[in-house]
Amino acid sequence: MTSRRHTPGLLRAAVPVTALALALTACSDGGTEASGADDKGGSSAEAGVISLKSAQAVLLNYAKVNNAANAAQAPDRTAEVEGGALLQQSQATFTQFKALPKKEQASFKTPFHYPVEGARFYIPRNGSPQVFMVDTQVTGEDIEKDRRRLLVFEHVKDYEKGKNKGAEWKAVSVGEADGKLPAVKRDDGFVTVLNASDAVGKVKLDDLRDLSKDFYVTGGKKAGASFVNTASVKAWKKSYTNRAAFDDGCVDGEYEPGFTAAETAYGLKTTDGGALALYDFGIDYQNWPKAEGPRCATQLDIKDLPTVTDIYLDGRTSTSGLTRTNSLITMAVVPASGTDIRVTGYHLQMVNAK
Questions:
Q1: Which residues does 57 contact at the CB level (< 8 Å), separation at least 6?
Q2: Cα–Cα distance between 351 and 261 in angstroms, integer?
Q3: 106: Cβ–Cβ under 8 A, 6 or more apart, which residues?
Q4: How far apart (Å, rounded) are the C-alpha atoms in residues 21 and 19?
Q5: Is 222 in contact with 207 (CB distance < 8 Å)?
Q6: Cα–chain-centroid distance for residue 155?
Q7: Eight-state DSSP code of residue 308
């Protein structure tokens, strides 16, 4: 299920417990610029991990199946073309769908499209990680003009052995590609895809997950020196600051490191020696009653949180404690130094509550 919203997915924590708002953002988430001169994804003497023609077909099929799944509210269909943290976010949105505003529910029945025309396909040489990426426009009714996304597709392990259902290549991550991004490095048309364990300057892509969690857990005491204070980082730090700032003074709160279904990172090497990175991380937001003073109760009143009470707590409207697990799929520009990391945006989705 791909969201039609164009927001950074801000987590709104510090509001009265009677109005604990959930940011129900789902993600879903090429002429054609491509790696190389022919449909093999590179020069005629070499091949990519996928041919250009096949990559185009993967992109078109992904949108087609996603639209059908959204219209029919069929999470199993989405699982045919998505994996990892992206699938986890989509399935959570299906679970929570009945709690979404009616207008937003209706928007999921309106098709969106990822046109091949004007899309930039980033395909690495054969023998590289089994990943390719696409920078493509997203179009459809009520979608902003010139809106673009960067999608990551990964080959399904052991697909040829018949151990997996659905598509051979599945979308596993997505980020908004609007605004100025560094140019992707090409060698004879091919790109270099980085693994989570690969380093860019002082930082491994895999480190971005824990560094990002630090903004929620400590306000950025460890990570702050490594990141530019973008709107996304400011929002994360604000969530930490307001973690227990409830109007009635009777609710406490804190963030703890959480986990997503994937806990991974993907990167594209850029011409300046840095990388474009897409990674996912989890955060647990915990609330409990302070029970201090005559106005405070020993139970949290959460009756105005239908997504939590109706879907995850079997209709219970009060509890002694509440933990919500949020999944964030994040896009960042990592300079060659591995410092001054610029988070360009993220999709946040609550994936569980207990």
A1: none
A2: 10
A3: none
A4: 6
A5: no
A6: 18
A7: I
- CA 114 – CA 343 distance, rounded (Å): 24
**Sequence letter at residue 245:** A
The CA distance from 142 to 199, in Å, is 40
pLDDT tens, residue order, the chain (354 aa): 665 443 333 222 333 332 232 222 222 223 344 444 344 444 444 799 999 999 999 999 999 999 999 999 999 999 999 999 999 999 999 999 998 889 888 888 899 999 999 999 999 999 999 999 999 999 998 888 888 999 999 998 866 666 666 789 999 999 988 778 999 999 999 999 999 999 999 999 999 999 999 999 999 999 999 999 999 999 999 999 999 988 878 889 999 999 999 999 999 999 999 999 999 999 999 999 987 767 788 888 888 788 899 899 988 999 999 999 999 999 999 999 999 999 999 999 999 999
Cα separation of the two ends of the chain: 23
In 16-29, which positions are buried (b, 16+ CB within 10 angstroms) versus exposed (e)? Answer: bbeebebbbbbbbb
Token pair in block for residue 272: 């300046």
What would the two tokens of residue 349 be?
């989705």
Q: What are phi and psi of 160, to 5 degrees?
A: -65, -20
* Contact by Cβ (8 Å): 82, 341: no
At 162, is the secondary structure helix, strand, or coil? coil
- Given this model, what pLDDT does residue 157 score? 80
Distance between CA 188 and CA 43 in Å, rounded?
7
Write the single-letter amino acid at 110: T
Q: Dig out the tokens for 149 from the structure.
A: 């996304």
Backbone angles phi, psi at 149, to 5 degrees: -135, 150
CB 161 within 8 A of CB 168: no
DSSP E strands, the chain: 112-113, 120-122, 131-137, 139-140, 148-155, 169-176, 186-187, 190-191, 193-194, 199-200, 203-204, 251-258, 265-269, 275-289, 300-301, 318-319, 322-334, 342-353
Nearest to 123 by CA among 59, 65, 54, 48: 48
